[in-house]
Design goal:
The chain is an alpha/beta fold. It is built from 14 helices and 14 strands.
């Protein structure tokens, strides 16, 4: 195999605390990292870029099968209003259109530097593409059902969908959606199936409306559910995350060694963190900042999460609640709102932590010799190696 070399103003290997200034990455033809280091003389580097070289990204939360909803949603409606739009619009497109758009957006993410993705699916429209795509995906087969009598039928259906995924050759398993779309019985049943696979994803504390539903049986989401004639989860006086932990216990006794991904975490508080860490031994915390701003103009408590040393991951969510599936735009949003977070740490959220959650850290996540993480160039950074509003990424290998 041939040896290739790229050099840039900064190389973020992510296996060190600081980037290499005027660094290089050598790699073979299949993208396996051979070496990294500081350039002896940048004037002698034929492929030197004013930018940053980073490992491929891991999109920690996406619904790529909802790509047909791009540009169709009103912003700022809150969670209840967003759910109404989902119910109204999600089925407007036929299968062929959905498949075409899944391929388009997965190809775009790959070109932008996404090497792996934790994706949500409600049907099999993305399976064939995922099976043949160079991007690795773990697919969470999300279920809904607010009425207790639905549980058996929903689990029968998702078990069949899981068999379809297995035949397609993709890694997949059932997972619960959230506290507000599921009966207690279905939440526990789907969580049990996810835990059995070793991986579970859960929309957690995405909005104050969700918290009000569980804490006091009030608010816009509660009223929305009641108007629709749907059952609501029990009022516990506690956060939705603590309710989820209780439902996990009904599925399987703690502690949980499985990889559990809590997504959004906008309303996360210290006692929630303490409760989760007490029982979850491999818990990861995904943030989707542009989606949170799109729906309810809120952001997760990043300072609190950092103070607790949480394993933060970064996702885009779907094109129903985002204008793009661009990981760098998510990073720019975090950098602008939380400028105290070092660039290396932000990139670890966007790459290394996701690789660890997916148990792919032996291949992905860092520019370490022997790994094949994807090699990505981020252009339009500032003199200190940090992101700017004009930062954009492109895959080199």
């Amino acid at each position: 195999m041939g040896k290739n070399r790229i050099a840039a103003s900064y190389v973020y290997t992510l296996d060190a605390d600081k980037p290499i200034r005027n660094g290089y990455v050598e790699y073979d033809d299949d993208g396996t990292i051979l070496s990294t280091g500081e350039c002896a003389d940048i004037s002698l580097e034929p492929d030197f870029y004013k930018g940053a070289v980073v490992p491929g990204f891991v999109n920690a939360h996406c619904h790529v099968e909802l790509s047909h909803l791009h540009g169709k949603f009103r912003k700022g409606t809150g969670m209840a209003g967003f759910i109404d739009q989902i119910n109204e619009l999600r089925d407007w497109a036929g299968r062929d259109v959905k498949v075409e758009l899944v391929r388009k957006w997965m190809d775009k993410m790959w070109a932008d530097g996404v090497s792996a993705m934790a994706d949500i699916s409600n049907d099999d429209s993305s399976f064939e593409i995922k099976a043949s795509h160079p991007m690795y995906t773990r697919t969470f087969l999300e279920v809904f059902g607010s009425e207790p009598h639905m549980c058996e039928g929903v689990m029968t259906d998702v078990t069949a969908l899981n068999e379809t995924a297995a035949k397609a050759g993709i890694d997949a398993a059932p997972t619960p959606h959230s506290c507000y779309t599921m009966s207690p019985q279905l939440l526990s049943a789907s969580a049990a199936a996810g835990l059995e696979s070793g991986y579970l994803s859960y929309h957690s504390q995405e909005s104050q409306e969700e918290e009000d539903l569980l804490i006091s049986g009030s608010g816009a989401m509660y009223e929305n559910r009641k108007r629709s004639g749907m059952s609501t989860p029990p009022v516990t006086g506690e956060s939705s995350l603590k309710y989820f932990i209780d439902r996990l216990a009904a599925a399987k006794p703690a502690p949980y060694e499985e990889h559990i991904l809590l997504v959004h975490n906008v309303c996360l508080q210290q006692d929630d963190i303490d409760a989760a860490r007490k029982v979850m031994k491999n818990v990861y915390w995904a943030v989707c900042p542009l989606s949170n701003i799109f729906i309810h103009n809120a952001l997760p408590p990043i300072p609190l999460m950092r103070k607790n040393g949480l394993a933060i991951m970064l996702g885009t969510d779907s094109l129903s609640s985002n204008d793009d599936l661009d990981m760098v735009k998510e990073l720019v949003c975090l950098h602008e709102n939380f400028p105290e977070v070092p660039m290396t740490e932000l990139l670890q959220w966007a790459s290394l932590n996701g690789a660890r959650f997916l148990s792919k850290e032996d291949v992905l996540g860092t520019l370490t010799p022997g790994k094949r993480p994807g090699i990505v160039l981020v252009r339009n950074i500032d003199e200190d190696g940090a992101l700017t509003a004009g930062s954009r990424s492109e895959r080199i290998k």
